[in-house]
Design goal:
The structure is a single chain. The protein is α/β, with parallel strands linked by helices. An eleven-stranded mixed beta sheet has the order 1-9-18-17-16-15-14-13-10-11-12, sandwiched between helices. The longest helix has 22 residues. It has two domains: 219 residues, Rossmann fold (3-Layer(aba) Sandwich), CATH 3.40.50; 272 residues, Ribokinase (UDP-N-acetylmuramoyl-L-alanine:D-glutamate ligase, 3-Layer(aba) Sandwich), CATH 3.40.1190.20. Helices cover 41% and strands 15% of the residues. The structure holds ligand NAX, adenosine-5'-diphosphate and potassium ion (K). Ligand NAX binds next to helix 1, helix 2 and helix 3. It catalyses: (6R)-NADHX = (6S)-NADHX; (6S)-NADPHX + ADP = AMP + phosphate + NADPH + H(+); (6S)-NADHX + ADP = AMP + phosphate + NADH + H(+); (6R)-NADPHX = (6S)-NADPHX.
């Protein structure tokens, strides 16, 4: 898992790296510019396209000057435009301006918007402001950014789009550069992983600029992002003499007469993730569907949506409750019965979350280390309305501690909150997965890992990462516009196999 950094911590990491490697700060800037340029050249190999690099006079602008020099040397047609709105400049900006001049590269400076010339370049590199942003853009900066956005050119931002905050709440009224691609240094900024970023970032890439990883990983921060290796390390190989009893028994309490599909998707995903035995607690009307679709699964029937009084709860290692369950009084009883009968971690999804939201007294019965998997609407129903995503991060961290549970706020980059106060982002997934039933599959996967004996936190990490990875692979291999829940769950065994 990789720690994510705030702008302050990023500055500390710069400082540490510079001291530790006995280098000059301008050398670190050169590394950053080199890493940016390599990524830029891969994305835009056509050297006939003209480039204008818009630079501020801080270190983001310094990066821009170094990038202009490197791209010029690589054979691109580069123009440099410097916004001198203040009298200040950073020393590495000054150093890079001297280097630029020594190469004979032409540059223009403007002190006010009125001095700006018409822009002909087809690509604009945005090196105006970076993580030093300390207030929303206004005055000349605001006009400049609005003008750049109005040109409709391809914009590539250095480190972060100018005007966008790396962390903290985003206001819809903040004006930022709208970039086609942002090439960011060392780590994605936390706000890149929240939906607000869609306003200004179409795509981002992260390049390694050689900051001290030991230092970064030792920083105290709640924010982290999952990686392939953090998942592989957690997956357990199957032992030669293992048998179905080794891999646990899961119970999926799900489905309604008109929503049997949710139960089927959840149960089949659970089975395909490797549980030894999977039982589905479903409405009696769904038995034929279950037997036809998943002959491997067993059924525990709910007549008139009531769980039989003699259900042997103790034989299950993990339970999922919610997909397609409905929110009727009978469904509430099903939830109540489950909460009163099973004290091991439970995975709560969909209607189980909606029922918890409308019956707060039931929340106290949620077993410790349970996993709740709300999407944003369910999250707000359960924990109250939020006016921005940063607030949801705060709530998620607080509630996970308070309830001693793992909360997964599902999204493009799903966010996992742990009882220890961590806030972990999942990088995998694709918009091709935005189709009904996908969450039911995730719930089945988490429950399966739990039943197999994984710790709840690990079960959550594994399921979310592999779920997204499977979706990503299916959409890219088959160039699929959409990946359905049914096709994703068929791919789970291979997706796990590839990671182990
Ligand atoms: N580890 C890293 O991430 C590295 C970062 N570097 C670059 O350094 C950048 C940060 O540089 P700086 O700290 O010099 O800051 P910036 O270049 O982002 O900003 C320059 C100055 O502009 C002023 N300013 C901030 N917000 C403003 C606003 N809304 N209106 C007007 N003026 C405003 C501030 O006084 C700020 O110090 C990063 O984004 C990155 O591009 C690289 O040079 C080296 C390594
Ligand atoms: N744009 C996206 N990018 C990545 N993952 C996505 C995207 N859209 C949906 N998903 C994933 O699909 C799942 C959808 O869950 P949910 O909204 O509960 O669906 P449903 O209720 O239909 O089962 C979540 O795991 C979510 O992270
Ligand atoms: K920038």
């Amino acid at each position: 898992m990789l720690n994510l950094l705030t702008s302050d911590q990023s500055r500390q990491a710069d400082k540490y790296t510079i001291q530790h490697l006995s280098m000059q700060s301008i050398d670190l800037m050169e590394r950053a510019a080199l890493a940016f340029s390599e990524a830029f050249i891969k994305n835009y190999p056509d050297k006939m396209r003209s480039i204008a690099v818009y630079c501020g006079t801080g270190n983001n602008g310094g990066d821009g000057l170094a990038i202009a020099r490197l791209l010029y040397r690589a054979g691109y047609r580069v123009d440099v435009k410097i916004a001198r709105f203040s009298g200040k400049s950073s020393s590495d900006f000054d150093g890079n301006l001297a280097r630029l001049m020594s190469q004979g590269i032409i540059f223009d400076e403007f002190r006010k918007i009125a001095d700006l010339r018409e822009e002909q370049a087809s690509i604009i590199i945005d090196a105006l402001l970076g993580t030093g942003l300390n207030k929303p853009l206004d005055g000349e900066w605001l006009t400049l950014v609005e003008w750049l956005n109005s040109l409709g050119r391809t914009v590539v931002s250095v480190d972060i789009p100018t005007g966008f905050k790396a962390e903290g709440p985003i206001s819809k009224h903040d004006v930022t550069v709208k970039s086609e691609l942002t090439i960011s240094f060392q780590r994605p900024k936390i706000n890149f992983l929240l939906p607000d970023s869609a306003l200004c970032i179409k795509r981002f890439e992260v390049v390694d600029i050689g900051l001290d990883e030991g230092f970064i990983q030792a920083l105290s921060t709640p924010y982290a992002i999952l990686t392939d290796s953090s998942i592989t390390r957690r997956l357990k190989k199957r032992k030669p003499f293992s048998h179905k009893g080794t891999f646990g028994h899961a119970l999926i309490v799900a489905g309604g007469i008109q929503t049997m599909g949710a139960a089927l998707l959840c149960a089949e995903a659970c089975l395909n993730t490797g549980t030894g035995l999977t039982t589905a607690s479903i409405p009696s009307e769904g038995l034929t569907a279950l037997n036809i679709r998943i002959p491997e699964a067993m059924a525990s029937l709910r007549y008139k949506n009531v769980i039989p009084a003699d259900l042997a709860w103790e034989k299950y290692n993990a339970i999922a409750i919610g997909p397609g369950l409905g929110v009727s009084d009978e469904s509430k009883l099903v939830l109540k019965q489950t909460l009163n009968s099973f004290r091991k971690p439970i995975v709560f999804d969909a209607d189980a979350i909606n029922l918890l939201a409308s019956n707060p007294d039931l929340v106290n019965l949620v077993p410790k280390l349970s996993v709740l998997t709300p999407h944003v609407k369910e999250f707000d129903r359960l924990f109250g309305e939020h006016s921005n995503w940063w607030e949801r991060l705060e709530t998620g961290m607080n509630k996970a501690k308070e309830l001693d549970c793992i909360i997964i706020l599902k999204n493009r980059y799903s966010i996992l909150f742990t009882p220890e106060g961590k806030c972990v982002f999942n990088p995998t997934g694709t918009p091709a997965m935005s189709s009904g039933g996908m969450g039911d599959v995730l719930t089945g996967m988490i429950t399966s890992f739990l039943a197999q004996g994984y710790k709840p936190e690990d079960a959550a990490y594994l399921a979310v990462f592999i779920h997204g990875k499977a979706g990503q692979e299916l959409s890219s291999q088959n160039r699929a516009y959409v990946v359905t829940a049914g096709s994703l769950l068929k791919d789970i065994p291979q997706a796990i196999g590839k990671m182990i």
